[in-house]
Design brief:
heterodimer; A: 289 residues; alpha+beta; Enolase-like, domain 1; 5-stranded antiparallel beta sheet; 4-stranded antiparallel beta sheet; 11 helices; 14 strands; globular; B: 752 residues; Aldehyde Oxidoreductase, domain 3; Aldehyde Oxidoreductase, domain 4; 7-stranded mixed beta sheet; 17 helices
Chain lengths: 289, 752
């Protein structure tokens, strides 16, 4: 590690100014510090700690039925929120299984999104729930849809002087259910080998809207339009689920590595996508799932 | 035979400090002026070294020593074959070979210096396929193998560092006459011990003597190693082990104490080495070996086992270390606890350019048992028999004679099977994605010298001075319990002075499930000696006959005269009481073993521990993900002296066995380099994955047992877990997984 300067920001302004001056923000440190310790990445020369910035905290329901997450909202806070669990269920699913107990207590949604790992848990749910992030720089603030945030592993569309300060999730339409499912080899301290998210709206027995995203199956988390098309207008029955799952497998561009072969990942893409869709449909219908 | 009662709770003396984080491990010690050590590892997995230039590294400010083979005596070392140098001289043979070491004022400078060392190589063909390495025309990992000093029994030849054959009767003829013959080939990946404490070593010289604080399971072997590689008397080396954060076998054998001692001598300062997690994976010449295992068995249609043939190839990796006995140990596990008339087992331990393998908790047994127990279930299926019934018919029992001619006296193999089957509820109706699998195994005791002292302090407490090591296995709990029982005192009355080679007599260390068997025997003998001294003193003081005295609750009483007594504290304040003992080392039973070669002493299993595990699993057929839901573990480990400690060994061993069964494996690239030397992708089982574990102890009177009829208990729980999981998976899938670990991808593929 070769960190030269470490400052602690007390306000958003201080944090943004430090980032604009070239510092890497650190909150939970579950990617930055762990990555540097294991040799996966080097510690940046300049670091600004933002964990004490009160304005960046919070998991708040909005008056219009939406949800605002401060960038410092921890996975544990999100997972423990009854409101998130009831209406943004896929995000609740994901936050509850990030890493270990320690990772969930330390790690933040802002860090998770900006780390831009194609295997991150919270990305797929936020994409499917139509979330946007607020990026702030000394020159102003802008909103970016989460699905437009990533360009590759570890790469985002955020400018170097921008700090992610919050995430907004719009109110889900009536009859919406969502789910995130991960293929996992063990129950704790796991990283997605394959993941899938579905958010579907069912009105009078017909799927009127669907979003399906895949995790750890391409260079970034991304939606699968063919899978969504297979669901919209259908009754959400097994044929529609089957073809949506197949569409995810077809869209996947998996790699072979120590966690699994590309063949296995592709086969699991269909299985895990079907499970996510099935669970989301059950939730949309108000069934207990 | 009897079942064992729950014990009173005794909180282990090191428990609180370990749990609260106040415990001091080796890496926590700080010596004034200490330097940081870093190693320069091999840049190739097999190459000739043509030049080593440390000039630039030595010139770097802050570097106080750079050490290569030129700076230490030119000697070879190794427990069973001397085939390795402290620092590579002409050849590097695996990823973790140490070419040079640096001691510097900071870690950053040491890292920089290590990178400045210039090493030129001439790459050699890399031997990673250990089965192919058996061929006579294979590249030799050690071209000078014939010149090495090594244990005569190993039958070394070319890349084969150990060869064992067990032959009895005529296996081929018996197979030809069998109604049913089944064959199987099983392949296992290498596995690591993964102690949570990465190892650390600190060395400090005073004159020509060196003290080494190190995270080792075997301080006396470490002492011998340092003395040998530096060519100094053993009495000039003192090894101290602060709290040890686990070992699981990986901290057995002599490893890096010599490198650090050499650095400290050259730097004239204390030097500390602390491994990163990555180094703890790839640089340690000590992991569980990969194997290729082929079985062929024949039976009569009624289940009578007629013959077994086996061919085993074990990956020794680059160096032998203490693991030369593996070919014989694996061959004994290929026999397994079965009655067999016709046997032909061929077992080869082979050098490669992979990381060296050595003892990890029950070395060789989990892999061979996993293969054999699947093979036995496959035989049962071919016979149309229930696998439990086939085992009922073929397992050893009291009076059985093994294939190596050992007569087994007082064993409860079949009883453990029945108990495990009963505990798990074998035969119950289960959901269609669940099934129960059963496996059996065995493991020997290792008799060895040990010694101990017990002294009384003036306040009536005592101190136990023992060579026993605390590897997490509970010697700090067991030793005071044993001594207190002899003296009518409480375990809490005793402190321990241990893990210091200058304090206690020799002990083998925390390995081979031997702490109670040997250290316990010595400690009890010392306590008995002390008790005799106390009784003599009390008899004189109380003017009573020794025979009328008893030790109760810290006092010595005259039986029937409650007013006539003296406390141990009173006696201790007036005199000097110290007991010593070693106990009589029990002999291993004889084995005739005609037709066997490669005997290193394991052809008879001394006081064998018999084990049956039954597991219930749930298999997700669509993904191949397996969850172990319940494990029933029934063990014959002789008389259980410390139930809480014994149970703890089973809990830990079963969980470790599940990791080996399902997820733990080291993946290597085409040149034998680690691909997953970190805990993200080397998948240990977590507490959340641990199943319900039910334990039954079946106590037997064992011939040549340890103290009070005990046997070992630390390693057996690792032995049959993977085999039982495999058999359960096969029942759900209707197909077998022939590779270990049985990862989700492999299970999924087998079920396709």
């Amino acid at each position: 590690m070769s960190m030269q300067t470490f400052t602690t920001a007390a306000t958003v302004e201080e944090a943004v100014a430090a980032v604009a001056a070239g510092a890497r923000p650190v909150a939970g440190g579950t990617d930055l510090v762990v990555g540097a310790r294991t040799g996966k990445s080097t510690m940046p020369g300049s670091v600004v700690a933002i964990h004490r910035v009160a304005e960046l905290r919070g998991v708040e329901p909005l008056a219009d039925g939406g949800l605002r997450l401060g960038s410092l909202a921890s996975h544990a806070e999100i997972a423990e929120s009854d409101d998130v669990c009831a209406r943004f269920t896929a995000l609740s699913d994901a936050s509850a299984i990030v890493g270990s107990h320690a990772t969930r207590a330390q790690g933040t949604v802002g860090g998770n999104l900006m780390n831009a790992s194609p295997a991150m848990e919270t990305g797929g749910p936020l994409v499917c729930l139509g979330a946007t992030v607020t990026l702030r720089s000394p020159s102003g603030t802008r909103s970016v849809a989460v699905e437009d945030l990533w360009t590759g592993p570890g790469k985002t569309t955020a400018a170097p002087d921008e700090l992610l300060v919050g995430v907004e999730v719009p109110a889900p339409a009536a009859g919406t259910g969502s789910a995130y499912v991960r293929l996992e080899y063990r129950r704790q301290m796991e990283i997605a080998v394959v993941g899938a998210t579905a958010a579907v709206t069912v009105v009078d027995g017909v799927v009127t809207a669907a979003r399906v995203a895949m995790t750890a199956l391409s260079a970034t988390i991304r939606r699968v339009p063919d899978a969504e098309a297979a669901l919209v207008g259908s009754d959400g029955g097994s044929a529609a689920i089957e073809s949506a799952g197949a569409a995810v497998a077809a869209a996947a561009t998996p790699i072979s590595d120590v966690r699994g072969s590309a063949d296995y990942r592709r086969a699991m893409a269909a299985v895990i996508a079907r499970r996510a869709i099935k669970t989301a449909l059950s939730r949309a219908r108000g069934e207990n799932a | 035979m009897a079942t064992v009662e729950e014990p009173r709770t005794f909180i282990r003396p090191d428990g609180k400090e370990k749990v609260t984080g106040t415990g001091r491990y080796t890496a926590d010690l700080v010596l004034a002026g200490e330097l940081v050590a870093k190693f320069r590892y091999a840049d190739h997995t097999h190459a000739r070294i043509t030049r080593i230039d440390v000039t630039k590294a030595r010139a770097l400010p802050g570097v106080l020593a750079v050490v290569t083979h030129e700076d230490v005596p030119d000697v070879l070392y190794g427990g069973m074959v001397k085939d390795r140098r402290l620092f590579a001289r002409d050849t590097v043979r695996f990823e973790g070979d140490v070419v040079a070491a640096v001691a510097a004022t900071t870690a950053a400078i040491a890292e920089q210096a290590v990178a400045l060392i210039e090493v030129d190589y001439e790459p050699l063909p890399v031997v990673t396929d250990f089965e192919a390495a058996l061929a006579d025309d294979s590249t030799l990992v050690h071209p000078a193998w014939e010149e090495y000093e090594g244990n005569e029994s190993l039958g070394r030849h070319h890349n084969t560092v150990g060869y064992t054959a067990i032959v009895k009767g005529d296996a081929d003829a018996a197979l030809a006459s069998a109604d049913v013959v089944v064959r199987g080939r099983y392949v296992t990946d290498p596995v690591q011990g993964v102690p949570i404490e990465p190892r650390a070593v600190i060395a400090q010289w005073q004159g020509d003597k060196v003290t080494v604080w190190t995270s080792t399971q075997v301080p006396y072997a470490a002492r011998g190693g340092v003395a040998h590689v530096l060519q100094i008397p053993e009495s000039h080396v003192r090894i101290i082990v602060p709290l040890l954060g686990g070992g699981f076998g990986a901290k057995c054998d002599f490893h890096f104490e010599g490198h650090v001692a050499a650095l400290a001598r050259a730097a004239r300062r204390p030097v500390k080495l602390v491994f990163s997690r990555r180094e703890e994976f790839f640089a340690v010449g000590h992991r569980r070996e990969g194997m290729v295992i082929e079985f062929e068995s024949g039976a009569r249609s009624d289940g009578t086992l007629l013959a077994r043939k086996a061919r085993l190839v074990l990956d020794k990796g680059a160096y032998c270390g203490e693991g030369g006995f593996f070919s014989e140990m694996a061959a004994m596990h290929a026999l397994g606890p079965y009655e067999l008339e016709n046997v032909n087992i061929q077992s080869s331990l082979v050098y490669s350019n992979n990381q060296p393998s050595s003892s990890i908790r029950a070395p060789t047994a989990p892999q061979v048992c996993w293969a054999l127990e699947q093979h036995m279930d496959e035989l049962a299926a071919a016979l149309g028999m229930d696998p439990i019934d086939l085992r009922r018919k073929t397992l050893i029992e009291t009076g059985s004679v093994t294939a190596t001619g050992q007569v087994l006296e007082q064993i409860a193999m079949k009883e453990t099977l029945e108990k495990a089957v009963e505990l798990i509820g074998y035969g119950q109706e289960l959901p269609e994605d669940e099934a129960i699998g059963v496996a059996v195994g065995w493991w020997p005791c290792f008799a060895a010298n040990s010694g101990a002292y017990v002294k009384l302090n003036p306040d009536g407490t005592g101190t136990i001075i023992t060579g026993a090591q605390e590897n997490g296995t509970g010697s700090v709990m067991a030793m005071p319990t044993y001594v207190a029982a002899e003296l009518g005192m409480q375990p809490e009355d005793f402190s321990m002075l241990y893990q210091d080679t200058d304090a206690a007599p020799y002990d083998m260390g925390s390995c081979g499930s031997q702490t109670t068997f040997n250290s316990g025997r010595a400690v009890i003998a010392a306590a008995v000696d002390l008790r005799d001294q106390l009784l003599d003193a009390a008899a004189e003081q109380l003017e009573a006959s020794r025979d009328d005295l008893e030790l109760v609750s810290g006092s010595i009483l005259v039986k029937g005269s409650p007013d006539k007594s003296v406390t141990i504290a009173e006696l201790a304040g007036e005199g000097t009481f110290h007991g010593k003992g070693a106990g009589e080392v029990p002999f291993a039973p004889e084995a005739l073993a005609e037709g066997c070669v490669g005997q290193s002493g394991l052809e008879s299993f001394h006081a064998p521990q018999l084990i049956a595990h039954a597991v219930r699993v749930r298999v997700d057929r669509d993904t191949g993900v397996v969850r172990v839901l319940q494990v029933a573990a029934a063990h014959d480990c002789g008389v259980i002296l410390n139930r809480m400690g014994a149970d703890g060994q089973v809990y830990g061993g079963v969980v470790m066995g599940i990791g080996q069964a399902l997820s733990e494996r080291t993946q290597l690239d085409a040149e034998g380099r680690h691909l997953n030397a970190h805990l993200t992708d080397y998948k240990l089982v977590t507490a959340s994955d641990a199943p319900q574990i039910d334990i039954a102890w079946i106590e037997t009177d064992t011939l040549n047992a340890g103290p009070k009829g005990s046997k070992g208990v630390g390693e057996p729980p690792c032995v049959p877990t993977a085999g039982a999981v495999a058999n359960a998976i096969a029942r759900v899938l209707g197909a077998r997984v022939h590779q270990l670990p049985m990862t989700p991808e492999r299970v999924w593929k087998a079920g396709q």
